[in-house]
Amino acid sequence: MKQLSRARRVGLCAILCALVLRLWDEGYGDKLLNLLTSPGAAAFYIYLETGRDVRFSPSLPAFSPDFMESPPAATLPVTEPTLPSFSDADGLELYYASTKEPDIPALLAQPLQWNLRGEEPTVLIIHTHTTESYTRVDEPYTESAAWRTTDEGYNMVSIGEVVREILEENGIPVIHDRELHDYPSYNGSYTRTRAAIIDYVNQNGSIQLILDLHRDAAGEGSHQMRTLAAVDGEPSAQLMLVMGTNYDTYEDNLSLALKVHAQLEAQCPGITRPLQLRAARFNQDLCPGTLLVEVGAAGNTHPEAQRAAEELAKAIVALAEGTETVQPAP
Asked: What is the mean pLDDT of the chain?
């Protein structure tokens, strides 16, 4: 019985040796040896033995006399956004549809004294014309009218969500109003938004910035204006700040708008259209730090508008602690 078992073991060893020789002849032996002695395998052995995460040059065999550990991968430093000087108004484009003639250089240079970071909400995002949407490109939503929809995934609520997410990721607490202020009736939109803003401000004394996000419209029928910029090589809508001047404190809001406009152009040249001064209020008289921003136009696509909204959010983040040191919000 013992002789039979010994014969079986000898036979299995012979078969195994024959199989290994056959694989070696087929070139698999060299492949296995290369794998076991590769730089990646060498790094793995060192990790098992020492816990160090190293990298080796792939250009040399792992056990070559010249084989040595390569330097660690370079790490790019994390840098805070650089603010423009706010001392040169020559590069800013403005469109005057108002009789007011403010001192633009002085308002641009005026210090911004706020801090949007804190525990309580400091930013309110609202949409007077909530149902405004963009040129459809096979998106699966129903229009309530041309270039309008109640679908939050494609109307101005979706643009506000882009801004909200980026702000909150950067420590800026946000209230995002999702009410349809222009539906079912477009008339009275600003009146309904005004009442909502008053309620929010009365209940949240920490609010310092109010963003009323719209999209522009110009053209006839299917021929709608498309604003166009480039963000990281991709097509983007443009942004336009619209400032009302028919109230006593309009210059406070204009000072902020000029800084946002300058910051946008500094971080992404061409992203803005001329800042407009109009003979209106747009509810901007309710609170210092109220901006109306047109995010693209009806001729833009939804992705183009989203890219522009990202740039708007980045500009606000860059200005989150003002243009000089201030105390954090409560």
From this structure: 84
